Amino acid sequence: MNLADVARRAGVSPATASRALSGHPHVAEVTRARVWEAARALEYVASPEATGLARGTTGRVAVVVPHLARWWFGAALEGLGTVLREGGRDLLLYRLGDAGSRQAFFDELPTRRRADAVVLLGFGVDERERERLDRIGVGIVAAGTRVGSHPSVSIDDHAAGRQAMDHLLHLGHRRIGTIVAADPELDLAQPAGRSSAYRAALADAGITPDPALSVTVTWSPESGARAMGELLGLADPPTAVYAHSDEIALGAVRTLRRAGLRVPEDVSVVGIDDHPLAAMTDLSTVAQPAAEQGELAGRMALAGLAGEPVDPVVTVPTRLVIRGSSGPPQAAGRRWRRS
């Protein structure tokens, strides 16, 4: 079945049938209803490509993510998808995968414009990739990071890191370890603010950073567990640990408990995110609204497509959530009491 069949059954021209099915405002309601009735009777399905060709759009927004398994990406994607669906746009999802897949994606991008806008979730781009994005001639929005001068929504990573570090310092900790998260293959724009916050907080407290207290790992709970093992192996282990994410922090807590140490009496742990498991495990953290960032990115994309003004940079606030994994350090010269 094609559009001509629908038009013939409804007793209208193909042009009128097309306008009725695409929601054109200059179609009488009685005519629109007759065309839709004919389309349903014939089980007609409009070709997205043909419809887009007629109106100069695809009706889709491309969303590019480096990961799907991590909590932040799933939550942001859910918020983004809800807004796009309510705005009448389909979501076209691209997962970058490894470095080779990422390069192939950006190589092919200018030759296959399949969407009216592109939203980048949680990863930065280099100059070459930015140039490829600019060449496709559609609006670009970034969520969880910033990409050149394109509209973006994210948290202030430095401010979030300071909330975590200042909390530990206010509790009285002076020997604080940090577990830095890195994904060198995919995340070219690391959350550097979370590391700068660690150094700045120590400097403001008059503490000289000890390089041995900083461990860089990949972004996973297992890596957090291994990093905590390294910190426990030091001659003078930390009394508190600030992790770049809750997933890493939960891995660190696992190692501490398996070592027979108490949290927070022996070692305090604070993360960033407010992952759903953080409340269940009583983890102190700095909460960031992941779904809200996705929703805001979706609204930015829709506003740009409608020709409406878009804020160039939106920073959503974070907040410290104090739970049972952080507390004051034991007295100097303490001995760890095995639980």
From TrEMBL:
It comes from the Bacteria. Residues 1-55 form the HTH lacI-type domain. Pfam families: LacI (PF00356), Peripla_BP_3 (PF13377). Keywords: DNA-binding, Transcription, Transcription regulation. One of its GO terms (molecular function) is DNA-binding transcription factor activity. This is Transcriptional regulator, LacI family. It comes from Pseudonocardia ammonioxydans.
